[in-house]
Amino acid sequence: GQQVMQIPQYQHVQEGEDFTTYCNSSTTLSNIQWYKQRPGGHPVFLIQLVKSGEVKKQKRLTFQFGEAKKNSSLHITATQTTDVGTYFCAYGSSNTGKLIFGQGTTLQVKP
Amino acid sequence: DGGITQSPKYLFRKEGQNVTLSCEQNLNHDAMYWYRQDPGQGLRLIYYSQIVNDFQKGDIAEGYSVSREKKESFPLTVTSAQKNPTAFYLCASSLGLGNNSPLHFGNGTRLTVT
To answer: CB of B1 within 8 A of CB of B25?
Structure first.
């Protein structure tokens, strides 16, 4: 069935380094959403990508949706300690419409 | 301010007891969801509801029950039949069911069963 794999599972970076997490699907996705969960907190919606090849930016965060709509990435430029948390991609099931989450990438930033 | 309220934040129960987790939203959202989060396993869908008086099983519904008698409320009962109930439970809502509606999450309830 439809599923996504999110990589890497964990990433440790030095403050100021860049960070990228990838979400890869075996099938075409209609859209993809990204969420951030701070340690001890709840997931917070960041952005939704709908169009093939779409690129959106939020300050130091850059989100991309692949041309084939089978993969997506979140890139953070010059990480800060406030970027610490787990980043999830999520997509809508083609059968039921419900949102299905990837496993998440947990980012640690060393000051 | 509109939002989703989950209570309590921490809950402790003895094995064999049923426990009900509260979820209330004042966002006027039609759809509501319950997710379970375990370390390293992301978010797994327990139950969801598209509209009042209707709900559907998610991927891991066994040992859980829900009700949706009011638009604002979607309580989750963890029954004694749930084999591994200790987890972080997240309630969420969205405008409607469908992959264009972002989810708004509550702060979660951390349930510990001993």
So the answer is: no
Closest CA to B11 of B88, B104, B93: B88
Q: Which residue has the higher pLDDT, B41 or B52?
A: B52
CA atoms of B74 and B67, how far apart (whole Å) = 6
Cross-chain Cβ contact B99/A92 below 8 Å: yes
pLDDT for res B61: 96
Would the CB atoms of B99 and A31 count as touching at under 8 Å?
yes
What share of chain B has pLDDT > 70, as a percent? Answer: 96
Say if residue A35's pLDDT is above 80.
yes
What would you report as the CA-atom Rg of chain B, rounded to the nearest whole angstrom? 13
Query: 3-state DSSP call for residue A81?
Result: helix
Q: Is the CB of residue B114 less than 8 Å from the CB of residue A50?
A: no
- pLDDT (tens digit per residue) in B50-81: 999 999 999 999 999 999 999 999 999 999 88
Predicted confidence (pLDDT) at residue A1 exceeds the cutoff of 60: no
Contact call for B100 and A44, based on CB within 8 A = no
B43 and A92 in contact by Cβ < 8 A? no
Contacts of A98 in chain B (CB under 8 A): 33, 45, 48, 58, 97
Task: Tell me the C-alpha distance between B66 and B75, whole Å.
Answer: 6
Q: Classify residue A21 by burial, with Cβ atoms within 10 Å: 0-12, 13-18, 19+.
A: buried
